[in-house]
C-alpha cells in the first residue's frame, strides 16, 4: 500500500509540477476594487405555501460546472455551482429560506463532468470512484440538527447520476426537519479528502431558518433589502480567469499536492471580488459567513462605524454585543446589525487586517486588506427597525447534569524540516473506530487541547456547545512532549496545566458550532446532544449509521485528516 502511494505520488508530482511563470498567475492588485455591485444570491423558499399555510417542500438542487464572473475585468471562471438548473446556478449557491418546524427535503444532484477543475491529492484519505470517472460530492448542512443519513458523511459521496456512491451512502433525498432554534446555517460539500477543492470550486451556499413568532417581536431589520447574507472567501486566479490552486505540495514526495493552508489574494463577497453596495442611511442586518478554506478575517470599518452582534453561528445571543471589530474563523458565522445612520461619512470600507495564517503569519497586503465598499445615501431615513435590549435567551445549561468529560487533543505532524505532513485529533486517523460516543440527550464537557501552532476552528456536527473558558497550557513544551509519547491528557496531568485564562469575547459566549481553539491552550466547552430551546427529543434516530463527525474547519486540515467520527448511542 505504502509503495503504491509513493509511486503514485511521484507520478502525480511529475504531472502537476509547473513553475509559477507557467502558471500565469494574475496579479490581483491590477483588478480595480469596488466596481461590481454586491449580488443577492437567488432565494429559494424551502417550504410550500398552501392557501397561506406553510407545508413541507421537496426540492432538487444540482451541482453544475459553468462559468462565473468574479470581477468586471476578469475572464469568466470555470466553477462548480449549486442551483435549481445550470442556468440559475450561482457561486455561492442560492440562499435557502426555511421555516422553523416545517420540513425540507432536498435531492442533491451531481451533474459535474468526469474531471475536477482543480488539482487534488490521491495520497490523503480521498473519495475515489472505482472507474476514476466523476467528481465525488456530498452535501453537509452546517449547523443543522438532523438524522445521520442526511448529514453528508464524508464517505456518503456520490458521482454524477449517483453512478457510484461511497461506502456509507444510504439515500438520495436528504431530510432537514428544521425543528431547531432559528438562525444561520450554510450548506457545503463534505466529500472525503475533496472538501477543500470542492468548496474552492464554488460548492457553498447559505441556509436560514426563520421563526416569525420568536423573531418578529425583536424588531430587527428585515426583508430582502435590509437583511442580507454575505458569504466571504478568498481566491487566487490565473490571467485566463481560472481559479489558481498550487498543484505542488509543501512535501511533494509525501503528498504531491496537499498544502496545509490555502490562501487566495482576492477577497470575494457573494461571488464578486471587492464588491460595492449602496445603502440607505438606516440599519441593516448582515449574516456574514466565512467560507474561506483557511483565512481568518478581522473585520472593521475604516470610518470607525461599529457593529452590533445579534447572533453567532446558528444561534441568537442573549443580548446584543457592540464591537468595532469582528474576528471570524473559517466557517464561523456572525450576524450583525450596522446602523449606517451613524456614519459620519458617505463611504464606509469594510476592511480586514488578520495575519495569515492567523495569528502569527504574514500581514495582509493591499488586495486582501479590503473586503467591500458601502456608499451611504445622504438622505436621513425613517427607520422602524430596532435593536432590542435582549434577544433570545435559551435555558441555561445545568452543569451538574454533565455525564461525561472528554479530552480532545489536536496534533500536527511534520517532517524533520518542520513541514506539516498531516494533522490528527487524539493521535488517531479518521478510520480508527469512534472513541467519542455521547448518549442522545446528554450534556458533556470537552477539554479541547491545541498542541499545534495554528488556530483550529473546531466544528461539531449535531451538538451545540458553549465555551466555558480557555486557558493557556502552563508548560506547553513539557505537556506536548508527554502527549507525543503517551497521547493521554490525564496521564500527562492536564489538570495541572491550567495556566492563565485567555479572554472569550462576549459575542462568542452564546451557543456555537465552531470555536477557535488557540495554539497552546485548553478550551473547556459544554456540549449538548439535544435541542437547546426545548426538552423535546430530536424526533429522529441519531444513533443510526453512518453517525456524525467532528473536525477542524480549516478545510485543508479536515481533508488530511483532522476529523473523527462522532457516534451517538442510546
Ligand atoms: C458508471 O459506472 C460504471 C461502473 O460502475 C462505468 O462502467 C461507467 O462508465 C460509468 N458511467 C459514467 C457515465 O460515468
Ligand atoms: C507552490 O508550492 C510550492 C511548494 O510549497 C512552492 O515551492 C511554490 O513556490 C508554490 N508556487 C506558487 C506559485 O506559489
Ligand atoms: C474564515 O475562516 C477561515 C478558516 O476557518 C479562518 O482562517 C478565517 O480567519 C476566517 N475569516 C473570518 C473573517 O472569519
Ligand atoms: C500569567 O499572567 C501573569 C500576569 O499577567 C504573568 O506574570 C504570568 O507569567 C502568567 N503565567 C503564565 C503561566 O503564563
Ligand atoms: C492552536 O494553537 C496555536 C499555537 O499554539 C494557535 O495559533 C492556534 O490558534 C490554536 N488553534 C485553536 C483552534 O485554538
Ligand atoms: C427542561 O427541563 C429542565 C429540567 O427538567 C427544566 O429546568 C427546563 O426549564 C426545561 N427546559 C425547557 C425549555 O422546557
Ligand atoms: Cu485545523
Describe this structure in a few short sentences.
The chain has 570 residues and is mainly beta.
Explain what this protein looks like in three dimensions.
With 570 residues, the protein is mainly beta. It folds into 3 domains: 7-212, Immunoglobulin-like (Sandwich), CATH 2.60.40; 227-380, Immunoglobulin-like; 399-566, Sandwich (Immunoglobulin-like). 8% of the residues lie in helices and 37% in strands. It is built from 6 helices and 33 strands. The strands form 6 sheets. Strands 11, 12, 13, 14, 16, 18, 19 and 21 form an 8-stranded mixed β-sheet that branches. A 6-stranded mixed β-sheet has the order 25-24-26-31-28-29, with no helix packed on it. It has a 5-stranded mixed β-sheet with strand order 1-5-10-9-7. A hairpin with an 8-residue loop joins strand 3 (53-68) and strand 4. The chain is globular, with a radius of gyration of 23 Å. The two termini are 37 Å apart. The relative contact order is 0.14. It binds 2-acetamido-2-deoxy-beta-D-glucopyranose (6 copies) and copper (II) ion. Residues 131, 133-134, 163-164 line the site of one 2-acetamido-2-deoxy-beta-D-glucopyranose (NAG).
